[in-house]
Specification:
Fe2OG dioxygenase domain-containing protein, 19 strands, IPNS-like_FE2OG_OXY, 20% strand, oxidoreductase, 5-stranded mixed beta sheet, 31% helix, 398 residues
Length: 398
């Protein structure tokens, strides 16, 4: 039977030898059968969570002219402020306002690959208006980066891989002869206005159906609104409501690819709040990997072969549910235009933020639009009997 709710896991259990086996069993279930989970006791002080929420909400109250000083269109990094309804997912307009941040990097040199443009300093709001904003989110991203890498080692253990199986994709000795400092964690602070604020005829798409791109993401639901929904194997939409003291963890397509389909990346969407309910606030953190990683390595070398008995467990899940009905197909694969994760990420950003693409990447945008036109002619739901490979939507959103 397909899932009808999202499991809640207690990360503190992973630190106790007496409870760690049970934690890993529950994690394996979430990875293979759901692709989403709530995680509590992650090791971040409650006061920091509260400060992140306060500062995040306060950003949207600063004057419009201050937001536009750090607008995403100002730079090729896709970092900065996006106006309401400036992003596209699944061919539809996402009705949200947001700022994109990341773990910071110096500006790339003249000989760096084009996708290194994504690695850059953040565009921060003025400290004269939000004096604690930069410090708060720098600390939060650093802490979340450590938590995400630690949690990835638990994911490896849950499917009987070595704890360090994914470490080659994090900062350290790099691909292609480069010292790997191209790992970039991302964070968004998002405001979803209610449909009454949006006006008639705008619909209720906060974010359209999609799968996350990389390994894992960690969502802090910053208000008590429902809206996040996860698609189960029968194609039904299951609510993922806010639960105090938790982060919502989503498995990305990169993890599904690296684990040969064992860990499932699940389609999800966000519905705008109903009229009169006020805005929903959301602060997702996206674990990054090296942009230099090549699809050839990811699919043919990767983390090594997952054991056959683990793959068999996933096959049984599919058989038990009669396959997998999915609105969004699996897109993480070699053989496309992009040869590296960095190239693929850049194309996805151009696809989502076409206003930025028009200014900084017109050639890529032209190619993306041609792709989208071709996909629109053959789009249809997919039933998965084995891990699916096709075309669809991979973005960063919650």
């Amino acid at each position: 039977m397909s899932f009808t709710s999202i499991p809640i896991l207690d990360l503190a259990q992973a630190s106790d030898p007496a409870t760690k086996p049970q934690f890993l069993a529950e994690l394996r279930h979430a990875l293979m059968e759901v692709g989403f989970l709530y995680l509590k006791n992650v090791g971040i002080p409650d006061e920091l969570f509260k400060q992140v929420i306060r500062e995040g909400k306060a950003f949207f109250d600063i004057p419009e002219e201050e937001k536009l000083k750090i607008e995403m269109k100002n730079a090729p990094s896709f970092l900065g402020y996006s106006r309401l309804s400036a992003e596209i997912t699944a061919g539809g307009i996402d009705h949200r306002e947001q700022i994109d941040l990341s773990t910071e990097h110096p500006l790339p040199g003249p000989d760096a690959p084009l996708y290194d443009n994504l690695l850059a300093p953040n565009q921060w709001p003025s400290s004269s208006i939000l004096p604690n904003f930069r410090e708060t989110f720098t600390e939060y991203m650093n802490r979340m980066g450590e938590i995400s890498i630690s949690f990835t080692s638990l994911i490896a253990e849950a499917i009987d891989l070595p704890p360090d199986a994914f470490n080659k994709y994090f900062d350290g000795p790099g691909f292609g002869g480069r010292q790997n400092q191209t790992q970039q964690h991302k964070l968004k602070i998002v405001k979803y206005p209610d449909v009454g604020t949006l006006g008639s005829g705008k619909g209720n798409q906060g974010v359209g159906p999609h799968k996350d791109s990389m390994l894992s993401s960690y969502l802090l639901q910053a208000s008590q609104h429902r809206g996040l929904q996860v698609q189960n194997m029968r194609g039904e939409w299951i609510d993922c409501p806010p639960i105090d003291g938790t982060l919502v963890v989503a498995i990305g397509q990169g993890l599904e690819a690296l684990t040969q389909g064992v860990c499932v990346s699940t389609t999800h969407r966000v519905l705008s709040p109903e009229a009169g309910k006020g805005a929903r606030y959301s602060i997702p953190f996206f674990q990054g990997v090296s942009g230099d990683a090549e699809f050839e390595d990811l699919e043919n070398v990767g983390v090594g072969q997952v054991k056959e008995e683990i793959k068999e467990l996933r096959r049984r899940v599919l058989e038990k549910n009669g396959g997998r009905l999915d609105d969004v197909e699996f897109t993480f694969r070699k053989g496309g235009v992009a040869k590296t994760l960095g190239e693929a990420t850049l194309r996805n950003r151009v696809k989502s933020h076409q206003d930025v693409g028009e200014i900084w990447y017109p050639d890529i945008l032209e190619s993306v639009r041609a792709e989208q036109a071709a996909l629109a002619r053959k789009k249809s739901p997919v039933v998965e009997a084995v891990p699916i490979v096709g075309e669809g939507t991979a973005v960063e959103a919650h």
